[in-house]
Amino acid sequence: MRLTPILLAPSVDATAHTAYAADTPAVVPAPCVDPDYLPFDFWIGNWSVTENGKPAGSNHVDRLLEGCALRENWVGVDCSRGHSLNFYDSRRGVWQQTWIDNSTGALNLTCRFSDRHMVPTGASNDLKTHAQRIDRIT
Hints:
Elements: H1 14-23, E1 45-51, E2 54-64, E3 69-76, E4 81-89, E5 94-101, E6 106-111, E7 121-125, E8 132-136
Antiparallel strand pairs: 1-2, 2-3, 3-4, 4-5, 5-6, 7-8
């Protein structure tokens, strides 16, 4: 519900105005403004992606939830599509990325910002052999 301020007539008791002010929600500072939430901000925007000098696709990354998360939207030239949700997990002190695409590919990666670098890494199973592998995005 959104409250709309109204003008009080001069004859209205001041306690009515005080009650209105008490019902107005307090301004809460944005929760995700600490420097730990900022290392992936360079990624926000539209990207043309190449592989070996040839077009591979496009990526659109935008901020969600007042800066608490980033959403990636991938479209490949081969009609592949994928999305990721990226956020800083302050309880664990890591960035988390969860990726899913239209070929059932999924990744669950974490990384820390260190020496001006982030290398998302995680374990998954190979779709064909089911052997565990380490995924590293550089």
